[in-house]
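Blinded run. Sample ID left blank on purpose so nobody reads anything into the name before looking at the predicted structure. Input follows.
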Amino acid sequence: MSSTPRDRFPGLALLVDPAAEPGDGAVADLVARWQQAAATGVPLAPGIRASFEDATALPGPGSATEVQVSSDHANLSIAAGEVLVKFLADPAPGEDHGLTVARHLAAVRSAVVPTLLGALVEDGPRPRVLAIATRLLVGAEEGWGRFRDLARAVLERRAEPGASLAAARAAGDAVARFHLDVATPSAVWPTPVVLADRATPGRWADRAQDTLAAARAAAPDPASRQRSERIAAHLASVLDTVEAGVGTPLLRIHGDLHVGQLLTVGDRIVVSDLDGDPALPSHERDRPASPAKDLAALLRSLDHVGRLAALRSGAVGLDDPAVDRWVAAVRQATVAAYRGRLAEGGRPELLAPALVACFETAQLAHEVHYATTRLPEWLPIADAAADAWLDERITDAT
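Blinded prediction complete.
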């Protein structure tokens, strides 16, 4: 933790010993003080308000094993015993999107997200959330690794696709359960579903065009520029479908959904990281959106994980027909399970299938831009997935 830029994580700077390192008990001690402050109403530190919903997961000071789970541009997560503490980077004033979604899902007793334990909020004219605690998902298997290994086993002919299809169906079912739970009224959101007005498709189109413009501007070579032009042409061909979105249901979607956000815990899948779309300013992440956007992002990531498996394996090329077959099959299985769960939940109208292809194309432009500007080692995968979509080797699965 001492190597983490503490000015970006004010919860660390205010609440944890500046010399602390993961494993020395500082975060476990913070959790204990956090729970005590919540129980007594005494501020944890000047101006710091604490809430803690469940004391059964508390580690004792110095007794819990501490492990740094993640550190990225959005958060720093430290596991302390059975508690996962997420320190927010550069927290904006106002209610945090992820915390609000988590509170709503806790109110409807959702079983498809980690259990919310509490939060630390810096009071003031415009309060800001510094840290969020959830129950640690012990033994959780992260989605990128799981689906990569399943795909690789098929591509290397060590396994039939049955296990991949079962995992895809479980993923589609879990995401549908997530959307159904978000769409359930609670004291947090008495009216969680609204209908898209006539201005909404225009905002979607503008956002897609902005994403595409950024991708085109960042294209580093002639091949990349040509690919960007093909994305632009494809986007133009499907952009008018967003008009079908008028009157469709909108809710607080996940916003950054990909297979890595799906954690397998025993026989269930849990949807993690509810922070919203990192490409959006914090004040825009709460704007209701179409669940089709989440589904489109998940489907794009399934293509990526198939190409990643091919790259790691070396048994086939990234554009090999075997990769396309695996990608197409798991996408179809995901969509079938997703739609089946919505229907079983009595809310099939939550998905507007006509929107998915447009959202997928916009997501494709985002992924190529992100790989070009921030993750160049991922660019071969993003490019191969883009080419498969543009060449119509991979098509709309809805």
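Unblinding after everyone has recorded impressions. The two ends are 44 Å apart (CA to CA).
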